[in-house]
Amino acid sequence: MIARVLPPPGLARQLVAQSALVAVGWGVYLTGSVVFFTVYTGLSAVQVGIGFSISGLLTLLLSLPLGHVADRIGGQRAWVLGSAVGVLAFLLYPLVGAFWSFVAVLALQALSQGLTDAGRQVYTAAAVPQETRVRTMAFVRAYLNVGFTVGAGLGAAAIALDSRPGLLALVLINAAGIFLSGLFVSRMPAAPAAPGAGRSLPWGVLRDHPYTALTGIFAVMFFSEVLFSTVVPLWAITRTDAPKPVLGALFAMNTILAVLLQVPATRGAISMAGSARLSRWAALTTAAACLVFAGSGRTGGWVTIAVLALGVLLLTAAELWSSAAEFYFTTEVPPPDRRGIYLGAANTTIGISKFIGPAALTFLAVGTGGWGWWVIAAVFAATALLVHPVVTWVGRTPRRLA
């Protein structure tokens, strides 16, 4: 029973503990970040939106260079350095008093997030044995969800205080969490940079056309997360008769299933063929979910709730399968000395999805009145057909080690 909820003792369990710790702080912050900036610092909603958009663009532009840094100095050092920058950023948040100081602090946060993300994956791939690597990453993701859920509850309590000290606690708790996380990571077993790491330019990964095509698959699969977080709530509120409280129950169901089933979902992600199969399942399941959601606009009462729940179940399964496959592809395909750069390439294409996905998918699903769901389903069905040839191309193409 313990093996189902905890990874084996040692480094894997340390990684899980770190993920839960840092996620609590992030959950606290993310729950009330918009409230903090509009109420505590006095920024307008438009300024906050523009600032977050600029931060997203910076994250996109920094993915490859910071992946290169993680390769060069080692994942552990990059992770600790990113944590230190993150602590600084959140300690500066209460001092924000104008738009450009807000943007400057968000830029620090983007730098921190890029370094920690690249460092964590490079370190995990280098320090965890190959036979347990994907399973360990699944445990980490599951405990991140647990931590975010706990943090969101604490953040909601802080907002409920309706006071400046309560809002200040949002950022200070996250700063403390990031500090403790960095300290925790610095005490993990050392995993030096791979021999030859950092010799090649970060842009060289773009010449690996098979892998670039694979990152395109990642980008499309990320749309399923956009569907769940943005499009489905808007669709349910504006195009169905489902009561608004139902959305909270659907989100809770997704979180619980993601925690319980993320590790079992990785069972097939032990080879290129197995990971390709999971990717196909994820794409086809998302296509089916789109058709289910389209149908929810023509039902009523409890039938609507049941149809929406079925759609969320399908999206949750797709999320679990696609993340398991991505764990394998992003750690086993790249050469050991360039995992950070390859991860940066994947994050760049996913960043493009984050940029265009919410507006494009909302227009297709909600703005068209519903027929756009069929278009989105067709995109995922086409992606499912492309997975096998793309993964085969990746598998038969050697990767240069320098």
From TrEMBL:
Chief subcellular location: membrane
Protein name: MFS transporter
Cell compartments where the protein resides: Cell membrane
Matching SUPFAM superfamilies: MFS general substrate transporter (SSF103473)
Alphabetical keyword list: Cell membrane, Membrane, Transmembrane, Transmembrane helix, Transport
InterPro entries assigned: MFS, MFS_trans_sf, MFS_Transporters
Membrane topology per record: Multi-pass membrane protein
Parts forming coiled coils: none
Pfam families named in the record: MFS_1 (PF07690)
Transmembrane stretches, start-end: 20-41, 48-66, 78-111, 142-161, 167-190, 211-235, 247-266, 278-296, 302-321, 341-365, 371-394
